[in-house]
Amino acid sequence: MGKKIFSDYEFWFVVGSQFLYGTETLDKVAEHAQVIARGLDGSRHVPARVVYKATVKTPDEITTVVKEANHTDSCAGLIVWMHTFSPSKMWINGLSLLQKPYAHLHTQFNRNIPDEDIDMDFMNLNQSAHGDREHGFIAARMHLKRKIIVGYWADDDVMTSLGTWMRSAIGAVESRKLKVVRFGDNMRNVAVTEGDKVGVQIQLGWQVNTWPVAELVHEMGKVTEKEIDALLSEYTELYDMATDDSAAVRYQAREEMAIRRFLDREGALAFSNTFEDLSGMEQLPGLATQHLMAQGYGYGGEGDWKVSAMTALLKLMTRGLKGGTAFMEDYTYDLEPGHEFSLGAHMLEVCPSLAASRPRIEVHPLGIGGKGDPARLVFEGMPGKGIVASLVDMGGRLRLIVQDIEAVKPIYRMPNLPVARIMWKPEPDFKTGAHAWILAGGSHHTVLSLSATPEMLEDWAEIMDMEFVHITKETTIKGLKQQLFLSDLAWKLK
Hints:
Number of helices: 15
Strand order of the largest sheet: 11-12-17-16-15-18
Number of domains: 2
Shape: elongated
Low-confidence stretches: none
Structural class: alpha/beta
Helix content: 25-40%
Radius of gyration: 25 Å
Number of strands: 19
């Protein structure tokens, strides 16, 4: 078994049974459970270890496993399966204490019914078809959030769905530890980048705090020329140097070193800043921010701490997957009838993980913020199916809005646009998609990912107890209006 992408985490496979069937049957249950756990653990679709933990047969055994899971940092969640009939009243005390993500795998050990060999001994052993239904009832009765995965355990679709949920579960666990550093405050008078930081920390665990830009400038002063030289060597390995302004590039390297030190010192994985507060800085971080995002840090422009945190989490959840994930902003449209596209960019800060080819380091005037000409990475985005996601504060609750998109090769060269640029078609079509996004309250800032899936984000939102809105090729404005109305009522009653 090779090293897993998320080597710090494991998921416990817990199998339900009871003492009714005798020791021979229970031995078989444990044997089968270990075979399945090894199969799941060895799957290329499964990003963390799956460990057979126990066959639980009594309320006390169930409660003990749950308590242990809650207090084991490396345990990111439980995967439960009822091999036999496990009376679900036994599970009440344990499940009422569960604080980790929870998946219910509805499967069975054998793929097929053994025609000539099936007898009552086989039936007593292999009772998942109704054992899992008994377990499903108690979770529904207790209103527990859980992922339900149905199918034969060795099939790719089952392992893929399980692996996707595991990424969401790890995202939920990491969310509870996430720290966001805000250099300065939000852009003045902007509404959607605001939010209830205390409420978010209670619900999602995010610790969002502000530091004065002067402290970052002080950290920049401690960066040595030797350190800058080393980072410039890294830049030239990864990017084409398309500028003679070495001073601007070196300044971005100084900014990057200082920001990274600041984040690492605070144990933070995400940051935000704004061009309205650059006191003591010569350039808005551009290349610096882009290269930090390429290393997995999250970023949000204009003080948008929510999109900064979401960028960091999606980068973490999609680790090892093809594609890329980046902070994004809808900037302008191409409205040729029947071929409408959105052009996404930002002033500077789009992650090169989305680049279709080797990015170029260029230096150009920014035209905003009143500072020097910043170095930045310029590139075209890669094509592919993906999503854009926006987390918004609706007052009393959070709403995660996800829209399916198809990124395309930009249809224009745009030689005078000196920023990274991505073009995409929103689902279900431009007019309906933009209408739906605005109706739901989606921000102009998003996370664009060609790696994350809607299922991954929906699972994460459910674990975090959050409203989820998904704009797909099936979305209609009439249907979305009804969904939002009913959702508003449900969340207010909740």
